Amino acid sequence: MTTEERGTTAEPPDAAASGAEHASVAGSSHEGAERDLIDLFDALGGAAGSSGPHVWAPYANVNAGTVHGDQRVQNGPTEGAGTRRAARVHEGPVPESEVEAAAFGFAEPAWFGAARRKLDKKVLFLAGRPGSGRRTATLNLLRQYCGEGVPLQAMDSLTELDRWRPSKPTVGGYIVDGLFPARPLGPGVLGHVRSLLEKAGACMVIILPDDTALLRRLKQDLHIGPIMCEPPPPSLVFGSRLKAEVPDERERERLMSAVGDQVLGELLAPELVPTEVVELVTAIVAAGGDRTLLGDLTEQLSFRAEQEVPELVARLRDESDALAFLLAACVYEGLDHRIVKEEADRLLELSEGRLSAVLPVTDPQGGRNEERPNPQFVFRRSLTDLLDAIGASRQMPRIPARGMYTHSVEPVSFIRHRQAEAVLRHVWREYSQVSDLLVSWLSKVSRDNELTLPAGRIMGKAASWGGGRRALRHIGTLADSERTTSQMIAANALGIAAEDPLLVGEVRYRLENWSMAASPYRRRTTAYACAADFGLARPEFALRLLHTLLRGLQPGGRTEGEQLLLRLAVEEAILRLFQSGHEDLVFTRLLEWLKSEKIEPEQLLALFSGLLLSSNWFQLQLSRETSRSPLTIDIIRRALNTDDSFDKTCSALLRWSNQGLWDETASRSVENLFHELARSMRHGELRLFVEIDQQGTAGWAGREIARSALSSWRVGERWESA
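Given the sequence above, the corresponding structure tokens read:
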């Protein structure tokens, strides 16, 4: 049972029911609150997708393996609504999957060889415009220079290089995503960093924007010239990517025959950046040689979207319903047309005439002087007219691979790629009152992860579009809402906004303040942000925030309902950090928090027991008897002998034992664990072994150890393993 299979999607609340969402949960059951929160966390999405589904299946046997093969399933446009994209790690180990994805179909630019030689000096500055492939080129550069499989580490733009030290001796390359303008890099600091990297046998690439003032300052202060990331010619990128996507030469020729050399030459304009070339390759491969499916490629490529937005908005200026539908389609591109139409209607109603270019004019006697379209008219436009007006289409019906029940959807998608973001960026910048209307509209979105994911993404991007001292004001408005879905939209938005090096400092500052705020809404937003893209990309900082939130959960000062919601949010955030590849870091912090005694041990042990369901890391430590093995055994023993954490711990270990039927690693880990637990038959160990004896069947790992220990205990002997 995956996340999507737990139950149906919650219905959008009506006016009467909306208050129930933020009613006190003091009287509700703990299990009900957990289920409710898990549904809400589905709306966060983000990078947790890399760790697999969140399983809600008490006492069930769950096969968490992966499926391999050439079955490629795609539902909806890339980066569309509801699409869970993996968070690009800005702080911490770079996943091997991201390095492999960067190497797929990579075309080496002309400057690549020179950049490799400059890495001999340990620090390389790489500058380029957005979309030029700086991150992809950096990953390939480090992969070739350091060796395939060598760990790489990402560092945030706020990293203070004068205080920085190499993290681990195994790390071969470091990626710094931008230099914070307030902390210029001097010659002394650069020399110090180079000496540290030399001793560690590592190197570093600092990615910079193509900013004239910044690059000039680097040349003046450091007497160095950054490598300019000029992408390869579009034809070279096209050929390399197409060959990777379609290895068979005859199949490539068949696909290209549907395009034609003349059309391809027109499409591969010199100004195309690699991401736009990949769009073209993807469209050609997806069409499979069918000219009808291929359509007019010139109407699809995203590089022309920006130029057409002003004309599009001007064309719809006097059509309030079309404007509302345009904005809704931009936020929710990729969803079913019925959902997009409903959201457009809600926006139009909420606008109270603000989307109408003109209003009806009446004389003093109440007579109408002239006719004006009524924005409340129910037959304003047909769906076909609306789609034609904004340059979108209703796609063929399809069945999404989510939900407990199957149903067909007909997604609304723009014909031109990235049209949605281009429109929203234009109206946000050019029409100041539209931003307030959009925030008001999206803050009242229903509890549906199909809606909250794209809403958070757009609100996060809007922070960069607006700029200035109040760039994050609209996100703060969402965080202050008593509606949990608004807080989750804010959490998603903070992760997107923090991808901008100019905003990441303010995002971190706000979250630090919110983690100690009196407002329960801001505290919960902080926990949700730690579980979303922001926290998964910055696990160290996220754990510091979560520690602050946990310390604020001490008895007294807040209602029971608020305490429960915040505690469950913190638990889910820690679990997501653990599942996203930061197991050792999370385990280390939990041990430190237990030793510090600043947080109730029962709370931390309950947190730990929830992590045991993500068993792979623990089982590896126990089966290989690593240095983490004794610490793991000790904390499991403490959790078993604490009433608040016994049930979860026992349930997880029962599942491990059952897993040992077919998993050798699980079997060996349980055997090693039970041998140690049997040496101290306290109340918790005794209860666990009784459960194993009663529920287990022949072949369960550790069952014989448990039965032998129980027999020795019953006759009053202290059992010792051979």
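The CA atoms of residues 302 and 418 lie 5 Å apart. Try to locate this feature in the token string yourself.
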